[in-house]
Fold Putative iron-siderophore ABC transporter, ATPase component.
Amino acid sequence: MTLKIDNVSFAYQADHKILDAISLTFEPGKFYVIIGQNGCGKSTLFNLIMRHLPLSSGLISINGKDLQQLSFKEQAQRVSVLSQSMPLPEFMTVADMVMQGRFCYQGFFSRFSAEDRTIAEQAMQKMQLTELANKRLSTLSGGQQQRARMAMLLTQQTDIVLLDEPTTHLDLKHQYMLLDLGRELAQQGKIVVAILHDMTQAALYADHVIVLAEQKIYAQGAAQSVITDTMMQHVFHVNTSRVGNEKVGIHVPTHLIA
């Protein structure tokens, strides 16, 4: 399965363009990371893929088929998204929310099967939520809620996985647990695309890094060739000096180490 963004543009207003003629191809078995300043269009791109926003121009396709031609049920069987803005019904339990991931496979009169429940239970185990299964979402911490969102995404079992700032609210242990899971999904042959702000995590996990800036793709490729002091200055307007080894480094603001 291939996800293709072809010459896509979007503007909230005629004089406020967010994305301008963006073209990208996402292939199975890879972990992609998108980075860029706040407001550069990272989440907007996800919202366009999910059809939460209308395209101004261009085409988004899955396996060559225009996304607009898919029913929302068909789309939900192919693409899932972890969003920090995803609303949580406060009186719903963790187990009930995670089961929502199986709705796109249900007929009008069908009920959840034993297989559906097994898939949901395995997802909760994977996200270390089993002991919280009967807890109301409103009683959970922000990090626990984020893990519940991820468990619901796993239950959806799609071939394309979008992670919008997935480490938000998570402590360090669970940040790396979730990113490890993203890499595991990619190794299973899925397309995984994550929006990250942590350059070190991007370098550690990404097979391919995409930098958005000024409505365009500033650069893309392997992390070592994309995440550089020059990029940090041009895109984030911070003068940095890289400290690390060949695989990964930390870009430290030069005024802190002068």
